[in-house]
Design brief:
Number of helices of chain B: 0
Distance between the termini of chain B: 39 Å
Oligomer: heterodimer
Distance between the termini of chain A: 36 Å
Number of strands of chain A: 11
Strand content of chain B: over 45%
Structural class of chain B: mainly beta
Order of helices and strands of chain A: EEEEEEEEEEE
Structural class of chain A: mainly beta
Number of strands of chain B: 11
Shape of chain A: globular
Order of helices and strands of chain B: EEEEEEEEEEE
Largest sheet of chain A: 7 strands, mixed
Shape of chain B: globular
Radius of gyration of chain B: 13 Å
Amino acid sequence: DVVMTQSPLSLPVTLGQSASISCRSSQSLVHSDGSTYLHWFQQRPGQSPRRLIYRVADRDFGVPDRFSGSGSGTDFTLKISRVEAEDAGIYYCVQGTYWPRTFGQGTKVEIK
Amino acid sequence: EVQLLQSGGDLVQPGGSLRLSCAASQFTFSIYAMAWVRQAPGKGLEWVSTIGTDIRETFYADSVKGRFTVSRDNSKNTLSLQMNSLRAEDTAIYYCVKGWQMESWGQGTLVTVSS
């Protein structure tokens, strides 16, 4: 199985500052069709997960442009610019290239 | 807006069975793969199963293979998960999810396996 490793696991951030979360996969996530199926999800306390970013860098509809994704191969990053109070929660990366689908452990973003 | 209305979560004894349902609306259900993802209390997300648009195309996590069966009824826009031989470690919130790449999620339903 592909192992997804996130860091850090806890991230205190000051309002208005930027935050970055790393996600590394144990093997390349480039699919045979040429796409890289690495996605990012946000889970606010008491809520269902919500997809923010798909295929590394494409933002889902309604996601603020403060959220951006980057990376390639095995190394990916989610960046949150100008952090707001509503960004508090747990962020997960997931790979959709191989079976079984595997998630990172989650990164808890706390607003200071 | 996509609607995924889940039902079926309950308290069940170890070794028991349970069937979860997910009623989909506001999108063309038949042309989307659907999945189940679970989250144990206080833990992270774990993919459980996916069914393609072709009902013969199913995928399972090793942890549930042989015990869980995913199915869909395109005439009723409904996704189901039949869970047999339940174990304490199956205790989790189960989410119904739209698409191969998990684009929309239901509200979740709690399954508790305990005597």
